Amino acid sequence: MGILITACSDDVQPVQGGSYIKFIGGARNETAAAIVPTADGGFVIAGGSSSVREGEDKDFFVAKVDAFGDGIWSQHLGGIGDDEALDVKENGDRIFVLGYTTGIEVDSTDFLLYELAPDGALSDSVVLGKPDRSEKGTSINFTPEGNLLLAGNILNEEDGFDMQLFRLNANKETERDVNVGYAFSTDTLRLIEQIEEDRFLWYGTLKPTNAELPSDIRVAITDAFGNTINDIFFGSENDFNEIAGGIVQAEDGKYVIAGTQEAAGSTDIYVAKATLSTMVTTPDWVRTIELPEIQRGANIASTNDGGYIIVGTTTVSNNNEDIILVKIDSEGNLQWTKNYGGLNRDIGRFVRQTPDGGYLILGDVFFGNNYVMGVIKTDSQGNIN
Fold this sequence. Notes:
Tachylectin-2, Chain A, five-stranded mixed sheet
């Protein structure tokens, strides 16, 4: 049974037990992309906003909330063109927000990075890109030395996309400009991590430009110059579309991925566990979460019982989608699901387990006549008391 999200004039206040639903946004669309916990126990949320622009152009929207989802500050950032935040991270006392900015005279995009102080004040900004290509930043990470890793997607010569990495030094100057991709395909990056010294994990979706060929989830391990050490494709054994959602490292050092499988007559959440350090990889296990409705997996996190929690979107009817929370055990077996939504389209983006054993969910909630960011805190069974 789903939990109904209804409109109200005030934020829902947390009750004893710590569960709540909070809405963050203005008079027009605010859409969520990422959320990061902060050292003071709160969270910073980033995405796109149309509330301060005429037309459909967006700005970066960044908001700080406390542990109960109550707003502390918010910022609209951007230029004249269409700008949108796609990731946010905290490093020390700085907040870094990454996305893209759109050129005014040419229809192309560049990486756009903002650095903010703890109170949301703008400290610095960097634009990265070349005039003859389009780039969008989607993932921020840091080297052990604290240098920035900015990753995303660039338009290649075949009108597909490659995965792109900029490595910046302490002065935010580009040290490395690396891209990873296959000819006649679109490689769409979800995230990048530095897993060892000069070893990087790239995670995304590979879609051939030939529309008759299916897409696969791709995990590539490269050196610092983009040379491939290991390349693993999930779903290559079938003719279905597999689309990347999230990835998390398990306690045994292996990785668990979650996404979507589009098969003949069904669309389900796809989950697999595998070792990524060997050239020939056979997954430990592969699961599809087969429920009556259409489900898409967006993000995954580990849980304190050795299992995993997945958030995504489920289709309730032709014009109605809910956020779905899916709990699986350490072997990928389904334990329970919960839906959250109203009477329109609500989209699950992000999930993490909280110290009290509950779950924090970020999504887009259709509220009145527009989208707002929804922050949902549940108990350990996905309930909102």
